[in-house]
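Students often ask why inverse folding is considered easier than folding. One informal answer: many sequences map to the same fold, so there is more than one right answer. In these notes we will look at a single instance of the problem. The structure comes first.
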């Protein structure tokens, strides 16, 4: 599972605008993050809300950080989730993402997806509604998903069969591939393969891209493995591994014309972000901003695929990305990758606030924890 808080986030519109704030500058012998010349827009409207509707999955992936033996309270019922989704959509986030642990494990996920998409259409909202899944049950619910008509759909696959099965279990690739083929045909440029780069697969990234591109996949979303105290240590990448990965991207022809490869680089993935800023792939002059506010650098890989590096070298919790857990707890993005801390990091509960997401979200942005995240960024991350 990638460290990205919401799967692909539906890609990024490549229509560059001039960057109004100076985000980057050379630092020392390499290239590093510089203090923002103006503060990020901590608005009341969240960019992305991810809902984790259950704590179950058919797989036991080595790189999964969503490992909870038990929840902090009773899981929201379907009716409660519907009320919660209505409250979330009233806040009109740019994206609503349905995630796991596995969103299509049982009928609740498809029903809630249909409910959210129906609300989106009835209220004529500009919120993109999508889902990220391991694909194993996708074909079972294909009719419901087609009826919902999500704005984007992600399937997590970790490369070619050898690499996928090494972290997800024997036979997982063969079981997921028919769903990926179906989704690619049905959703076209709304479909994404989401791939987590780690020690098992990083040397065969090119083979993975070419395999999926050869099956008609237009978009591949890439995150880097984030090790937690309870996930696999042996598949973590070193800083030198990441640097070599970027050098291969510079020199290899990857994918095919029409293939887009999105890399999410934020403070959750600081080693990958830092290595990118120190690589030949980065220059401050290359930084662009999309109409939606995504800051990115774009390259063409040897005349083939488009490489789009989405950069967020600042806190993203709350205003940009937040998460709702199965029991209705609200978490900042910074607090989502270590489930051992979920209980003490939750900044509110939708059930306790009568499913008023807007109220919980506003209180989170006024919380001591949110200020701690900003202070840590200003006093520890930027100076380093």
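Output (designed amino acids):
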């Amino acid at each position: 599972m990638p460290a990205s808080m919401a799967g692909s986030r539906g890609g990024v519109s490549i229509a560059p605008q001039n960057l109004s704030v100076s985000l980057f500058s050379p630092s020392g012998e390499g290239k590093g993050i510089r203090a923002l010349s103006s503060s990020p827009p901590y608005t009341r409207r969240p960019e992305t809300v991810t809902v984790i509707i259950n704590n179950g999955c058919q797989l036991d992936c080595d790189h999964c950080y969503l490992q909870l033996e038990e929840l902090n309270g009773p899981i929201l019922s379907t009716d409660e989730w519907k009320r919660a989704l209505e409250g979330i959509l009233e806040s009109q986030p740019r994206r609503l993402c349905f995630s796991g642990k596995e969103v299509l494990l049982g009928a609740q996920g498809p029903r809630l997806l249909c409910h959210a998409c129906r609300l989106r259409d009835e209220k004529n909202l500009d919120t993109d509604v999508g889902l990220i899944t391991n694909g194993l049950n996708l074909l079972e619910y294909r009719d419901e998903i087609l009826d919902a008509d999500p704005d984007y759909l992600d399937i997590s696959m970790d490369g070619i069969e050898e690499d996928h099965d090494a972290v997800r279990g024997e036979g997982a690739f063969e079981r997921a591939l028919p769903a990926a083929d179906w989704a690619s045909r049905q959703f076209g440029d709304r479909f994404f393969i989401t791939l987590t780069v780690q020690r098992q697969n990083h040397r065969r990234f090119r083979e993975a891209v070419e395999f999926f591109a050869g099956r008609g996949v237009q978009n591949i979303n890439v995150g880097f493995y984030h090790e937690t105290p309870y996930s696999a240590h042996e598949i973590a990448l070193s800083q030198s591994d990441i640097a070599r990965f970027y050098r291969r991207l510079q020199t290899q022809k990857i994918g095919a014309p029409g293939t887009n490869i999105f890399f999410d680089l934020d403070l959750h993935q600081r080693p990958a972000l830092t290595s990118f800023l120190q690589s030949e792939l980065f220059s401050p002059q290359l930084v662009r901003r999309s109409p939606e506010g995504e800051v990115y650098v774009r390259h063409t890989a040897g005349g083939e695929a488009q490489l789009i590096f989405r950069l967020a070298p600042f806190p993203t919790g709350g205003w940009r990305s937040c998460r709702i857990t199965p029991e209705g707890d609200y978490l900042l993005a910074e607090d989502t990758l270590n489930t051992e801390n979920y209980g003490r990091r939750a900044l509110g509960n939708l059930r306790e606030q009568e499913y008023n997401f807007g109220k919980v979200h506003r209180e989170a942005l006024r919380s001591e924890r949110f200020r701690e995240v900003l202070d840590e960024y200003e006093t520890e991350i930027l100076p380093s």
